[in-house]
Automatic annotation (TrEMBL):
Pfam families: PGK (PF00162)
GO biological process, one term: gluconeogenesis
Highest taxon listed in the record's lineage: Bacteria
Species the sequence originates in: Rhodoplanes serenus
Name used for this protein in its record: Phosphoglycerate kinase
Main localization of the protein described in the UniProt heading: cytoplasm
Any single Gene Ontology cellular-component annotation: cytosol
Pathway: Carbohydrate degradation; glycolysis; pyruvate from D-glyceraldehyde 3-phosphate: step 2/5
Gene Ontology terms for molecular function: ADP binding; ATP binding; phosphoglycerate kinase activity
Length: 398
């Protein structure tokens, strides 16, 4: 494996250390509902603070449209970071400019400060050199501890590595080591389970993923575009009609290469996206124009569970349904429990990743029995696909 500069090589005492975390955590009504990503980041924060660094946290949160939006403020997340690490965490209402500069200038060694959402500036996602320079002015050293955002070549995930001494944080290091170990020579048959809601970002990588696995199990919002491609009505379900040709290509590739794609055979549908909304089990040709598919149905759950019994390795990103809303968590919870039991019995290797996927597996009480839980969703899938991750590549020793 290529070597990375880690915190072991970093001289951080009395230095201003810009630490890129992935604080893109699940929230509900402004409260953090799953702290896994924060817990994984905690060792890096405390190690740096204990070594006398001024620890300046950078992260994106959600997908604001390139300008400030209170809905996507990191302020409540910064508070949750403080609770997890058991130390005060300051907050600055911007990640560049006078507000950030003054907050950083007031720091003492060992202090921790969180800057506002980097995506409140459209230049972040463009990796704009002038914006990189403005961020870089705030620090002497850059630590990237956001493996789950390493598939983005953004200013704070990649650009800073060109202008400041760059190091992998402890979580980045642990993710790379654990994923390499778990998946170097996976036991076959191997399946990728892909669900969730980020259809446009993930559907087009399923073609490459198919080369690496024996079976592709598709659920969640992701499945709806495939169902639409097969001519099934999907009503008001989350679906990307523009990606129907891509879905058809992936289905054709599977047939041509003898790979199996497992799609839902029934669905749980409702007219409103709300907990306890009146719902029913529907056949695939029986989804009404005002209905949404919010979970896989009981026959689909049975299919997936019996498939698990035949498999040796499962790589999972994306829940099977809108698991935050009872009872649309049933598919995810049932499959997660079956996967966890098989793992505990030594029959299956289970590696799962993703902000909401981890929250769903915690909700199911299954995460502890999985072989490895990554914080990364999209980055995990791209890593599995064999793609270079810009936020990782920038850390490699040349
Ligand atoms: N059928 C569905 N309709 C609408 N939303 C769905 C459906 N199935 C799953 N979801 C939603 O998908 C979301 C999770 O998808 P997402 O792709 O963001 O996964 P993730 O694990 O967070 O990965 P990443 O870390 O890449 O974001 C959940 O909030 C869940 O409610
Ligand atoms: O949750 C994730 O997968 C990361 O935080 C990346 O978020 P993004 O897909 O909005 O870039």
């Amino acid at each position: 494996m290529t070597a990375f500069r880690t915190l072991d090589q970093a001289d951080v005492k009395d230095k201003r250390v810009l630490v890129r975390l992935d604080l893109n955590v699940p929230t509900e009504n402004g409260k953090v509902t799953d702290v896994t990503r924060i817990e994984r980041a905690a060792p890096t924060i405390t190690e740096l603070a204990d070594k006398g660094a001024k620890v300046i946290l950078l992260s994106h949160f959600g997908r604001p449209k390139g300008g400030p939006d209170p809905k996507y403020s990191l302020a409540p997340v910064a508070q949750a970071v403080g609770e997890v690490i058991g130390r005060p965490v300051g907050f600055a209402a911007d990640c560049i400019g006078a507000v950030a500069e003054q907050a950083v200038a007031a720091m003492k060694p060992g202090d921790v400060l969180c800057l506002e959402n980097t995506r409140f500036h459209k230049e972040e996602e463009k990796n704009d050199p002038a914006f990189v320079k403005q961020l870089a002015q705030l620090g002497d050293v850059w630590v990237n501890d956001a493996f789950s955002a390493a598939h983005r070549a953004h200013a704070s995930t990649e650009g800073l590595g060109h202008v400041l001494p760059a190091y992998a944080g402890r979580s980045m290091q642990a993710e790379l080591e654990a994923l390499t170990k778990a998946l170097e020579q996976p036991k076959r048959p191997v399946a990728a389970v892909v669900g969730g809601a980020k259809v446009s970002g993930k559907l087009d990588l399923l073609g490459n993923l198919l080369d690496k696995v024996d079976v592709l199990i598709i659920g969640g919002g992701m499945a709806n575009t495939f169902l639409a491609a097969q001519g099934h009505p999907v009503g008001k379900s989350l679906c990307e009609p523009d990606l129907i040709p891509t879905a058809n290509d992936i289905l054709a590739k599977a047939t041509a290469s003898g790979k199996q794609i497992l799609l839902p055979v029934d669905a749980v549908v409702a007219e409103t996206f709300a907990a306890n909304a009146p719902s029913r089990v529907a056949g695939l040709d029986d989804v009404g124009p005002n209905e949404m598919i919010l979970d896989i149905g009981p026959r689909s759950v049975e299919h997936v569970v019996s498939e698990l019994e035949r498999l040796k390795t499962v790589l999972w990103n994306g829940p099977f349904g809108a698991f935050e809303l009872t009872p649309f968590d049933t598919g995810t919870v049932t499959v997660a429990e079956a996967a966890a039991e098989l793992t505990a019995a030594g029959k299956l290797v289970t590696v799962a990743g993703g902000g909401d996927t981890v929250a769903a597996l915690n909700h199911a009480g299954a995460a502890d029995r999985f072989t490895y839980i990554s914080t990364a969703g999209g980055a995990f899938l791209e890593w599995l696909e064999g793609k270079a991750l810009p936020g990782v590549d920038i850390l490699k020793t040349k």
